[in-house]
Amino acid sequence: MVDVIEKEMDNPTFKSDTVLSDVHLHCPNKRHLMVRLNAVGQPVFLSYFKLLWDTDLASEKREREATIEREHQDRSGDELCDKEGNNLRELNSEVEALLDDDGDLEVVRRPRSASDLEADLLRDRVCPVILMKGEEDAFEDEEQKCTCSDAVKIEHTMATPLEDVGKQVWRAAFLLADYIVFKRDVFRRCSVLELGGGTGITSIIMGTVAKRVYCTDVGEDLLAMCEQNVALNKHLMELGRGEVKVKELDWLKDEFCTDPEAPYSWSEEEIADLHDHCTVIMAADVFYDDDLTDALFRTLYRITHNLRNSCTVYLALEKRLNFTLRHMDVTCEAYSHFRNTLNDLENLQDSRIKYSVEPIKVDFCQALVYERIEQLELWKITAQQLT
Asked: Is the residue at 318 inside a domain?
């Protein structure tokens, strides 16, 4: 929980009930102009998130890394080097030079490897370009940098009450999007359901490879923002002939909303399509409240039992550390509850479906630029039909 934001985006004041995503703290030192106010009066911003999935670029990066590695191997054998090729004698001399007058060590970060520096040359920092209607010309150069296929445009808010956190962009959504790009052949032409889709960025990335994605959440204002983001990135999905449909799905209810008068409701044909063809379910950064975590797993259980085929579930999350007075210690209560519920699902004795759970190693390439911290995790649940 952080407190933010009264009026001036460059000089925020803080309130006690507001949540701000770390993604939005990583902004350039420039004007912050909003696109509009949403239906509940919150400022809405437009950000460009650059994609690095070009095949030629990835190949060039691998070739450069291989060249650097060969250069490291060709160094004189009498040099003492660490596993990334840094000369340890040189490092030790640098450390000695950092002792202050009292002999205390002024600790600095270890010098970055050459491969890290090469990667930086190929990547831009995540710098949201924030526009206001009538101000597009001022950012024309920035917009021209983002060609049709190398950026995702996302409307989002930058600070909300806890109940509106879906209107922000979160790191776990980037992690799941990275995995989709990395394993795009696995997801190609699949039918996919996203739970708690928020701004829609993960569904949009999935829509570049999948046949159909049902991006779901609750709240008409949030779903309208998500639908706008899908429209902004329609050109990306057209490349793979994919489709993203924005729908309401409330985990606290047992049935799909089928009221034709309700926005974002389901038709009977869409429900049948989901049950007949869905093989992938995904969710990102939705595990921050124990009651909602329980509701999500109940929804997973209900939907997987209604599917015609076995399916795979991907859950991305950030393990958040919090100091609690109750424990007088740093804990991860929401994460602990998630893990306990995950274990309960795997140990569930069910005659129709067997649930298998495994963590996915987070060492795949980044297709989006963000701070991939060690607290980010990705889990895979296989829901195998037994009958």
From this structure: yes
